[in-house]
Design goal:
Radius of gyration of chain A: 25 Å
Structural class of chain A: alpha+beta
Mean pLDDT of chain A: 96
Number of strands of chain A: 28
Strand order of the largest sheet of chain A: 4-3-2-1-5-6
Strand content of chain A: 15-25%
Number of helices of chain A: 18
Largest interface: A-B, 32 and 33 residues
Oligomer: homodimer
Largest sheet of chain A: 6 strands, mixed
Distance between the termini of chain A: 58 Å
Low-confidence stretches of chain A: none
């Protein structure tokens, strides 16, 4: 099947004189998750992972993906004729290195220009130029062979109420225009769906779990345009737009419109986020300010309303998770519970809340050695029965009308070895220490990651993912620009943490073939105090679910770690006890939050 | 007197049609401390601090200096007609802002081009250009009015033996040429005196406490030139040079020579370190690689011989400091000891070692509130009597034939308040925690500073200097590129810590008008272990002097802090007891290193 598809594609490539065709996992907005319509890479290769790039040529095809997906891709590509290139492994060429080696003079490398960023295109262009080859932006070739392709999603949108957004689009535009003025920008080009969702206070379902709608946006000093698919326009939207002096235009019109709009203007457009096709329409602009968008920065700083709602969403979510944990702990080993069943059960507890909408990402419920695969997702072939021993790791989250949650708990389903407990305790120490920090204004996540990792490093242990990602409000669960990670990316922008930012705190420990541990809370950055030594910030922990006392080895903790844990458990008890439904749940929570 | 000097200078400026004359605190090598000959800024303004820039114009004169020197500059500039601009204070314009505001179209701003870096010149040029003014490189105008100016220093140099350097110049050149090849550089221009001292294994006394000689260096693929003042050439030097295929030329010849040498070559020259006059001689080069010099990086990584010698130097230095501390603790309040007398006494203990050469920097011995001035230096007007109460801070170091030391101890001279003890203990916790870290290869000082500061931040306390600077081997006590500091400087290069680097660990706490605390050890970066999670590094503490148990509040320390302190004291006891000279000293050291 895959072979047939690739052969059909190769015929189209031949007609169009394309030697190499590149198929990334992207939509025109650089979204982390893409709608069904944009799953061309999956259609062409059969690999279903959320990250990877395919390259097709007459004699072969390749797929590049990172360590999270090596096992899955190995299995899914078997017999497809697609060669797997395991990114990050020694002696495996990167896509760029492969092209540098194989592109010949006079050949043509092509990609749908709307599916790669201007930044990536520039890199490919340099490689092609060095070999005397050509990089071409073409239409989406998959269109011609994918006969039963789903339609592009065009779900209804919702306009957020002031109680939900906290700030009107008008107020937000005022701030953004001030930032534009400071930079001398006449026009701001927005193509990231979360930025558009935030600025225009709209939510959608085109990227389902992220609550985002397909859209583009343009902000000028005196006008603003929201490009949305015409078939989802409605009276309420048009009335809102008229009232707020916002033009609404058809989604695809931006490609006809932008060049004229940009002419003679100083345009703010981030090459890493704007797609290549769109970026090339800026040629008549007077200049391009290639910096992180002011919307991304403003969006990351939650306003008072958003903070208040966030807290409420987390209380509701914590109630569901605590009740689920009680159920799990009291039922495991007594009835047949598999990973998938556990995930369903947790989802049921969440659905008891009226304001619960849907999961905020694909849940990870991983037992035993499955949990050592960082992005494990149980399917019918891998789903396994939970036994009353060892660890179960659950990384899940919900979208509530009040906001977005993301929580990981790893719990003991029965007896643990001392080594397992030590691992759990060191991860817990990292989680508590990061959340327990006080730090001066100006610090970035690169300065703070040490707190989450030093208890592991001390023993030669570590984990190979970031410690913290930003979390969107009632939208995508991963947002920038803030992050907690120690490694500085060359040329990357260092983001100082600002009061109002929400970030995850999720250290872990993964032993291949044995088990995985991750403990994740969401943190809200807040002002702590101003002293003669400056302005100090600290974290408020939004997530309110106990850690597992059965997995803790108190003797390796410091006094302060114990105090931080007890303080956290005391807060959880106080806030969550009223939300338990049965006496048994209450009793369990009381026991789970006893001081160490 | 100052007024007369400035008026004479203004006459020269008028003749030369110079409207603003800039006088930095620099020599042509960007040295941190400069020889007497280069103290033009001091001659013209009367301000003796080690950092600051003067600007002179017909109607006035200004001096810009940082917070370390505000009090001193205030006093020294009083009545001189020179306006003090306190850098870092609100509403005080920086030098650049001042020029942006005051430079007029057609005016001429000038400076001795050999005394500002190419980087600084570019910035000034941009400011001048924006105002339609001109930046001009001129001769040193001070020459024409400073009649009793000392000669430029031309002290004899020493060639390091292999037992001292660990690596011959030939071996070092091989490594440097490999780096040049990797970057595609044909010629490497060296103007930092420590880089030249390291590469050619020479030491001098032109910058006395840093053991550096005035010199330039040029390395090409097949040749190397060392530019040294002709009057210090000797037979031994010329024989060594001939044997190592190094050309020796006269110091000033580089200005006549470089343009021809650079012609058509790809030249490696760091704009931040090479002076403007020299940099302009690269105009006929085929290209300039403006990156941190490979010598700076290689120099920072101490070889086995250097490490061994460093350890020995620190043992000798620790013996002197411990014996001094015993003397101080047993004599204070019983005889008249002032800050200066204490410094002399410590120097006497150091001088008992044959291999001791001289202090590695101007010692800071500061009692009580004096210690709150970070770069306090006692003079006859400020020198005060030590009383048997409160804190004495001593930041001193020595140059030994085996290497360079730098140590700060703050000790209780008698009773302390609880608040003083708490401050001392939090600074101590920072010192111990940084030194006690294990961290993966790839970490930079920006990742680690948290360990030194979090115990202070927790209480809204902080200190406003870096936590750690690199330390040169048998040369300047401050070296780059490694550093421990949390604040990322925009556009600055992030240096991963490498095994073999030596760095200081010196957290502090300063309460204006009350007291100051700083505790400094030097740390050597070493391989710790390789596990399945990667390669981990840790520190060896080179400095071997007990902390003051009388100043510690054990109840605010964590278990691990106590363990780190006891482990350190046990090492100090084991290594230093044999170097004590009297039974009383031995007994005191035993007591001082008792476990908490």
């Amino acid at each position: 099947m895959i072979k047939d598809r690739l052969d059909s594609l190769r015929r189209v490539m031949k007609e169009k004189k394309i030697d190499y065709y590149l198929v990334p996992t992207e939509d025109p907005h650089g979204s982390e998750y893409v709608g069904e319509y944009y799953k061309c890479r999956e259609y062409l290769t059969g690999f279903t992972g959320s990250a990877g790039t395919a390259l097709i040529w007459q004699e072969g095809a390749g797929l590049w993906t990172d360590a999270r997906y090596h096992i899955q891709a190995d299995r899914q590509l078997c017999g497809s004729g697609v060669t797997l290139f395991k990114e990050g492994e020694e002696k495996v060429p990167s896509l760029y290195q492969f092209l540098e080696k194989n592109l010949q003079e006079g050949q043509c490398l092509a990609a749908d220009g709307s599916l790669i960023s201007a930044e990536a295109a520039q890199r490919l262009q340099e490689i092609a130029a060095a070999k005397g080859a050509l990089l071409k932006s073409c239409d989406d070739l998959t269109k011609e062979i994918w006969t039963d392709r789903p339609d592009r999603s065009a779900e209804a949108i919702t306009l957020l109420s002031p109680e939900s957004s906290g700030k009107s689009t008008g107020e937000k535009l005022t701030v953004i225009r001030r930032r534009m003025e400071e930079k001398g920008a006449d026009l701001l080009l927005l193509s990231s769906l979360d930025e558009i969702g935030w600025l225009f206070n709209i939510r959608g379902k085109d990227i389902p779990m992220s609550l985002l709608a397909l859209a583009y946006g343009v902000v000028e000093r005196e006008s603003a345009v929201l490009y949305l698919q015409k078939r989802i326009w409605n009276e309420q939207l048009l009335a809102w737009a008229a009232k707020n002096q916002i033009e609404v235009d058809d989604y695809d019109m931006i490609y006809l419109d932008l060049s004229r709009r940009a002419q003679g203007k100083r345009v703010w457009a981030d090459r890493e986020r704007v797609n290549w096709k769109l970026f090339t329409l800026l040629q008549k602009a007077e200049g391009v300010i290639d910096e992180i968008s002011p919307v991304e920065m403003e969006k990351a700083i939650k306003n008072e309303t958003e903070q208040k709602n966030f807290r409420r969403a987390h209380e509701k979510d914590a109630a569901a998770v605590i009740r689920f944990l009680f159920w799990l702990k009291t039922h495991v080993g007594k009835e047949d519970i598999t990973e998938i069943r556990a995930a369903q059960k947790l989802e049921e507890f969440r659905r008891e809340w009226d304001s619960y909408l849907l999961p905020s990402f694909e849940p990870i419920v991983a037992y035993g050695e499955h949990a050592a695969i960082v992005h494990y997702s149980a399917d019918t072939s891998s789903d396994c029965l939970l036994r009353p021993e060892g660890f179960l790791l659950m990384d899940t989250g919900g979208q509530y009308r009040e906001g977005t949650t993301d929580i990981t708990r790893t719990v003991a389903l029965g007896p643990l070895t001392r080594r397992q407990k030590e691992g759990y305790t060191r991860v817990l120490m990292g989680n508590l220490r990061l959340a327990g920090l006080t730090f001066p204004y100006g610090c970035s996540g690169e300065n703070l990651d040490l707190a989450a990792r030093s208890a592991l490093w001390e023993e030669g242990l570590d984990f190979f993912h970031g410690t913290g990602h930003g979390v969107g409000y009632l939208m995508n669960v991963h947002e920038g620009p803030q992050a907690i990670r120690w490694r500085h990316r060359k040329g990357s922008f260092v983001t100082a943490l600002e009061p109002g930012m929400v970030i995850s705190d999720e250290p872990g420990l993964y032993l291949e073939g044995e088990y995985g541990i991750r403990l994740e809370n969401l943190l809200l950055c807040r002002e702590k105090e101003k002293t003669s030594f400056g302005r100090f910030l600290a974290w408020e922990v939004l997530t309110l679910v106990p850690f597992d006392r059965e997995a803790i080895l108190p003797e390796i903790m410091e006094k302060r770690d114990v105090r931080l844990l007890n303080d956290y458990h005391s807060t959880v008890r106080r806030k969550m006890l009223p939300l338990m439904k049965t006496k048994a749940e209450k009793d369990w929570l009381l026991e789970a939050t006893e001081p160490l």
